[in-house]
Amino acid sequence: MPERIGTGEGESTVAMASKSAASKATEIKLAHSPDSDDAFMFYALATGKVRPPGLKFSHVLADIETLNQAAAEEIYDVTALSFAGYAHLRDKYVLLDCGASFGEGYGPIVVAQHPIRREDLAKCRIGVPGLRTTAYLALKLFEPRAEAVPMKFDQILDAVKSSTVDAGLLIHEGQLFYSQMGLHRVVDLGQWWLEQTGLPLPLGGNAVRRALGPEIGRQIAGAIRQSVSYALEHREEALNYAMQFARDMDAEMADKFVGMYVNNWTLGYGARGKQAVNELLARGVKAGVIPGPASAEFLSENEE
């Protein structure tokens, strides 16, 4: 449960106890993307609505491909990762079984200036948000012959509009904005994945450094689950906080975007979610896009 600070006569005693506990707490560097969905997810931890005993979190914000690359050096204790990126880092990090984003029938979208057929993507130069992103992995599974042009995720829409690339692979809020720029959807890879597998497309999760040990890892998993639960139960206040990261989205669009990627899947993968992750890894390994093994390891706060 979230920690509650009392008022009245006991306030100074509680404050002193909290200060003393904080001085003994383990410092945890938590890295995630500067997006409204991640801000919503970590709202309770960032604002002290949830205060896990024995842990003190500091938040670092960076785009997902930067985090995928930084994880190779174990810069952060807990980090958001693309599931495709995790495949390169499983010796350093273990996936937490909460805090993930899935797209069930939706996900990264390939767009172009003019309507083109799916089969024509094989001849296209496509702007992608990084070579270790799940979006890129899904694109390679869909059309392995396409030429990828890595760039910052927030530059892709303009690159398509200016014909710098033939098409673009959109993540984050670009999935909602492209039609306003007169661009055309070629394929929604989350929809394609559902048609192929009957499973949601696992996009990104949170992972903890193995060097911290399983006990602290389980405590972190519990703290993140509490933070997600608090945000879902206090949606309006969490969304108000997340709006500062909404990048030109109004409240209605931000609420839609957050709902797409912070939901019951984020509270816990469940058997179907874990199956989806393993299916993605297995197909990526078979296609030669990511290294094996073709399965993931998950850490839960409930494990003994």
Secondary-structure map:
Layout: H1 11-24, E1 26-32, H2 36-41, H3 43-46, E2 55-61, H4 64-70, E3 78-82, H5 83-86, E4 93-96, E5 101-103, E6 109-112, E7 125-128, H6 134-142, E8 147-150, H7 156-161, E9 167-170, H8 174-177, E10 184-188, H9 189-197, E11 201-209, H10 214-233, H11 235-242, H12 251-261, H13 264-267, H14 270-286, E12 298-299
Parallel strand pairs: 1-2, 1-3, 4-12, 7-8, 7-9
Antiparallel strand pairs: 3-11, 4-11, 5-11, 6-9, 6-10
Poorly predicted segments? 1-22
Average pLDDT works out at 90
Structural class: alpha/beta
User: How would a crystallographer describe the biggest sheet?
Assistant: 7 strands, mixed
Number of strands: 12
Can you give a write-up of this model?
- The chain has 304 residues and is of the alpha/beta class.
- It has 2 domains: 25-98 and 200-299, Periplasmic binding protein-like II (D-Maltodextrin-Binding Protein, domain 2, 3-Layer(aba) Sandwich); 109-197, 3-Layer(aba) Sandwich (D-Maltodextrin-Binding Protein, domain 2).
- 40% of the residues lie in helices and 19% in strands.
- Strands 1, 2, 3, 4, 5, 11 and 12 form a 7-stranded mixed beta sheet that branches. Strands 8-7-9-6-10 form a 5-stranded mixed beta sheet.
- The two termini are 20 Å apart.
- The model is unreliable at 1-22 (pLDDT under 50).
